[in-house]
Design brief:
Shape of chain B: globular
Strand content of chain A: over 45%
Number of helices of chain A: 0
Distance between the termini of chain B: 37 Å
Number of strands of chain B: 11
Helix content of chain A: under 10%
Shape of chain A: globular
Radius of gyration of chain B: 13 Å
Order of helices and strands of chain A: EEEEEEEEEEE
Distance between the termini of chain A: 41 Å
Largest sheet of chain B: 7 strands, mixed
Structural class of chain A: mainly beta
Strand content of chain B: over 45%
Structural class of chain B: mainly beta
Number of strands of chain A: 11
Number of helices of chain B: 0
Oligomer: heterodimer
Largest sheet of chain A: 6 strands, mixed
Amino acid sequence: GIQVEQSPPDLILQEGANSTLRCNFSDSVNNLQWFHQNPWGQLINLFYIPSGTKQNGRLSATTVATERYSLLYISSSQTTDSGVYFCAVVPGNTGKLIFGQGTTLQVKP
Amino acid sequence: KAGVTQTPRYLIKTRGQQVTLSCSPISGHRSVSWYQQTPGQGLQFLFEYFSETQRNKGNFPGRFSGRQFSNSRSEMNVSTLELGDSALYLCASSLTGTGENEQFFGPGTRLTVL
């Protein structure tokens, strides 16, 4: 089945720094989503981005479907950005999300 | 518009018991998917329901089952609980579940098996 790899696995930043999280996937996909998991476990939708570039405030994402990767950019990071970021893809037309292992981000004040 | 809701939020059971978790999707969404999250295995797909029919299933034993009602609410059941079933169970809803629609997650049910 399709493999989803996220890098780096862990990231520690000072408040105000910028960061780039990467998601590689091994086959073509119909859908790609980025999530932030809050301390209580809920997955918060960041982007639905099967291709192209989107921006939402300090966050932006780019998916290059032909090269099978997606990037999540976080600018001017804040302590509230801390948590685990997941990339998930949908292969084919199943609607089944395949998750990467996540990137754990810690932003220090 | 209300988000995805899950009940109960926390549950403690003992080995051998069974448990039923509930998920109410966003109004108008007809697809409900269930996922299990554990520290060792990460987030794994359990199954997906659409219009009261199971449309996709992950690689879990038959002890894990589910159903969907005519109002799109879904339940999942785990019978003969094992210690390894301790996990965060998340449900997600989408309009059609075909992959062309964004999926939205509920807050999860944290199950502890003693």
